[in-house]
Design goal:
The protein is an alpha/beta fold and 836 residues long. Helices cover 49% and strands 15% of the residues. N-[methoxy(oxo)acetyl]-beta-D-glucopyranosylamine binds next to helix 7.
């Protein structure tokens, strides 16, 4: 303990005496105390929002107890820790998840009810912290939950953006972006750490000097900005362990710029300070594509430098030999966004700690590893040498050095193979030389991983082929997963209860392998009936939400068909809506009697488009325009509804996924690295219509291809087809699809001229994403969906089988694999208060 004086320590301990009680009175007292003393509201009158805040504070108090104990324990035992570096953490709301993880939902619900508050209403008061774009950020959040649950000593590190991903508002069918100032109501979950600050340098120059006959360098001058830490406790499920997510905010340096001040240039010195705060103000809203702005690079370096310093400081508390560093720390790079952390680490070891190159390189290489999340060329980060030299001059020198040594090795192994050297070089030559961040990451890491089997195979064979030849054991697979706590237990509490009832205990929530046993109930009539009832209730909840948000009434007796993800051409929301138009035109051809026999459908599409992604925005407009016509067509009525669900986010997903019956994962084969919502849908009893892409392939191995609706070109066919299409050898567009195009072009859905250029290029065969090529087999798969849905017994059996075979897709399994083969860390359960 910090108190060396025993008496003082005893006194302090007696003041606090025990941990917070779990009984009703203790819970109520802690909430009301926060109303009065933290929020300064009167305890006789506080709103739902006030009550939400006070409740969150009272929960945070409990988390702090275990969080402090956990860190104290890890420090005194000098354990190895994992550091997960990510520019995005798409956490979603915290209250329900926290209460479930610390097993106090029931206690809080009753305690609140007793003083007149409904816990479910409080859940809805919470803002959805959305510090991420899509898959990669949400994966980081699932990993945090699994790391804590598995009692792995691990910290997440990222940026505390003032503005998360924008709020999507639809006006006249078009997406508009509204800033999301998520902190306006305060954030009761975080702890500000004014004492944890680091100075971060930008620009300046390097100075060479000699020390004991060794040439050394020092980075000097430029501008200094401060990084301040904000911590959010991350509780695990059913454990006393509590990990941490540390996010950095930028602040002006303490020292005033006296020079400009003295020159009387007061305003410009204030301006410089404001520039500092600007660094962490906004999350770049691009998913799977790079925006090469200087500010983005500043964000990356800012957070990497603060993180690396923090990690080193923690290491030094207990260790004095640098060789031990890889035994005490594993740093994971979530895509290349935090790549500069590796160079910063090297710089500190060499320039500040005065290690020699060989030693420093070995330590770096043994402790860093990197995950690749995409093969899309537009997402592979490169930064111009000019920009890096300007912003981070010393880092640029080090990158050149790394590359120099590496190129020497390659030249030795493949003498004269300049083509290979060019491909493997960190520097892409040309008029505007670029640094290839992926190459840098691969070199600096001892392990590189893809996120699904197919994706890993593709990176080994395509973008990283040369590296895979040179480092045959470096690139391996870690199939993604999702946390069953948030995605079954919290999102679908009724389903969770039913599974617990069938399995006779709730251990499956922490050990998803146990869910396999559910298979025995796939044909149990009583169980199936409960299964159906739950889906229906979830659909009713969604229908009510759609009514509230859009004013559109959707029927509950229809198949709920959902595609929710970022809008991207490769994800092919366009193919989905083209099919919907085809379905609509077919329905229009029918007599009322024929129409009655059709399976009614509610098609829901949701997702944000990057603000600068014109084609994605055009697709949103088309979906809305089709919805306007179809939903108001008296001939069609409830047989088909088309909904664009605005502002798709984590909390929306928690309502949408449990209510879905069919979900679409229909990317062009080879383009979706993994997908993770496909896993969430399967866990919630939803069937998948999809291509053999990303994790769909492994889902089909687990649940069986017969239990999915698989269609479309396979990955090995895609290149040839593309080649054929672009050589002008495309097949004439089929009649059905031509009719759909004609309807769009002739104004059946009003003015959708924004989409016309895309339709014209499809007609010309310029179809990079194979929409026209896959359309027929997609229609066939959709027909099979209708036929299967008519046989409800079969459908429900497929649904139950899917859930019972979804265990592989728990992020607990994924994290165990990272721990074993990349991080080499152990599970460290800390003693609970009752143990000590
Ligand atoms: C995404 C991939 O697109 C998705 O397929 C995958 O499931 C997810 O990462 C998690 O691995 N990629 C991104 O979000 C991204 O921005 C640079 O990649």
């Amino acid at each position: 303990f910090i108190y060396h004086n025993e008496d003082k320590a005893k006194k302090i301990w007696e003041l606090m005496q025990t941990y917070q009680g779990v009984d009703q009175k203790s819970i109520q007292r802690s909430i009301v105390n926060h109303v009065e003393y933290t929020l300064a509201m009167t305890r006789f009158n506080f709103s739902d929002f006030g009550c939400y805040q006070a409740t969150a504070f009272s929960m945070r108090d409990r988390l702090l107890e275990s969080w402090n104990d956990t860190n104290q324990y890890f420090t005194t035992h000098n354990v190895k820790r994992v550091y997960y570096l990510s520019l995005e953490f798409l956490l979603g709301r915290l209250m329900q998840n926290t209460l479930n993880n610390i097993n106090m939902e029931k206690n809080y619900r009753e305690a609140l009810l007793d003083i007149g508050y409904d816990l479910e209403r409080l859940y809805d008061e919470e803002v959805d912290p959305a510090l991420g774009n899509g898959g990669l950020g949400r994966l980081a959040a699932c990993f945090l939950d699994s790391l804590a649950t598995l009692e792995v000593p691990a910290w997440g590190y990222g940026i505390r953006y003032d503005y998360g991903i924008f709020k999507q508002v639809i006006r006249d069918g078009y997406q508009c972006e509204v800033p999301d100032f998520w902190l306006s109501g305060g954030n009761p979950w975080e702890i500000e750490r004014p004492e944890v600050v680091y100075p971060i340098r930008f620009y300046g120059y390097t100075e060479k000097y000699e020390e004991n006959g060794v040439e050394r360098a020092q980075w000097k001058g430029g501008e200094i900005v401060m990084a301040k830490a904000y911590d959010t406790p991350v509780p695990g499920y059913n454990t006393f362990n509590c990990n941490n997510l540390r996010l950095w905010k930028s602040l002006p340096a303490q020292e005033f710029d006296f020079q400009s001040f003295n020159k009387g240039d007061y305003l410009s010195s204030v301006e410089m300070k404001q520039r500092a705060e600007y660094i962490t103000s906004v999350l770049y809203p691009n998913d799977n594509s790079q925006e090469g702005k200087e500010l983005r690079l500043k964000q990356q370096y800012f957070f990497c430098s603060a993180t690396v310093r923090d990690v080193i400081r923690r290491f030094k508390k207990n260790n004095s030999d640098w060789k031990d560093f890889p035994k005490k720390a594993a740093l994971q790079l979530n895509d290349t966004h935090p790549a500069i952390a590796a160079v910063e680490f090297l710089r500190i070891l060499i320039d500040e700690e005065k290690l020699d190159w060989g030693e420093a390189w070995k330590i770096l290489h043994s402790s860093f590893s990197y995950t690749n999340h995409t093969v899309l060329p537009e997402a592979l980060e490169t930064w111009s040498v000019g920009l890096i030299s300007h912003l981070l001059p010393r880092h640029m020198e080090l990158i050149f050095l790394i590359n120099h040594y590496f190129m020497e090795d390659i030249a030795k192994k493949y003498p004269g193979d300049y083509q290979r050297m060019e491909e493997m070089s960190i520097i892409a030559e040309g008029d505007d030389k670029q640094v290839r961040m992926a190459n840098l990451c691969i070199l600096c890491s001892h392990k590189v991983n893809g996120v699904a089997e197919l994706h890993t195979k593709l990176i080994q064979e395509t973008i990283f082929k040369r590296f895979h030849e040179y480092f045959p054991n470096k690139i391996e697979n870690k199939t993604n997963g999702v946390t069953p706590r948030r995605w079954i237990h919290c999102a679908n509490p009724k389903l969770s209860d039913l599974i617990t009832e069938a399995l006779e205990d709730s251990e499956w929530i922490g050990e998803l392998e146990r869910i396999e046993y559910l298979e025995n109930f796939a044909e149990d009539e009583e169980f199936v009936q409960k299964w159906i009832d739950i889906k229906k209730q979830n659909k009713e909840k969604l229908a009510a939400k759609v009514k509230e948000v859009l004013g559109i009434k959707i029927p509950v007796n229809a198949l709920y068909d959902v595609q929710i993800k970022r809008i991207h051409e490769y994800k092919r929301q366009l193919m989905n809506i083209l099919y919907v138009i085809h379905r609509y035109l077919t329905l229009k051809d029918m007599t009322p009697g024929e129409r009655e026999k059709v399976v009614p459908r509610v098609v829901i599409i949701g997702g944000k488009a990057a603000p600068g992604y014109h084609n994605a925005k055009a697709i949103i407009k088309l979906v809305n325009a089709v919805g306007d016509i179809v939903n108001n067509d008296k001939d069609i009525g409830d047989i088909l509804k088309v909904i664009f669900y605005p502002n798709y986010c984590v909390s929306a997903a928690q309502t949408l996924i449990p209510a879905s019956e069919l979900s679409q994962h229909i990317s062009t084969a080879g383009m979706e690295a993994s997908g993770t919502s496909n896993m969430k849908f399967v866990m919630n009893g939803c069937l998948i219509i999809g291509t053999m892409d990303g994790a769909n392939v492994e889902i089909s191995e687990e649940v069986g291809e017969d239990n999915m609706f698989i269609f479309g070109a396979r990955v090995h066919e895609v290149d040839d087809i593309r080649h054929r299409l672009f050589a002008g050898e495309h097949n004439p567009i089929g009649k059905r699809l031509q009719r759909v195009f004609d309807a769009i072009l002739s104004g059946t859905f009003g003015d959708v001229s924004i989409i016309h250029p895309i339709i014209h290029s499809l007609m010309d065969g310029k179809d990079y994403y194979l929409v026209t090529e896959d359309f027929d087999s997609y229609v066939k798969a959709q027909n099979k969906v209708d036929d299967t849905y008519r046989d409800q017994k079969k459908w429900n059996m497929m649904s139950i089988l899917g859930v019972s075979r979804s265990a592989k897709f728990s992020s607990d399994r994924t994290i165990e694999e990272y721990c074993d083969s990349i991080w080499k860390v152990d599970r460290i359960p800390i003693p609970t208060p009752s143990d000590s």
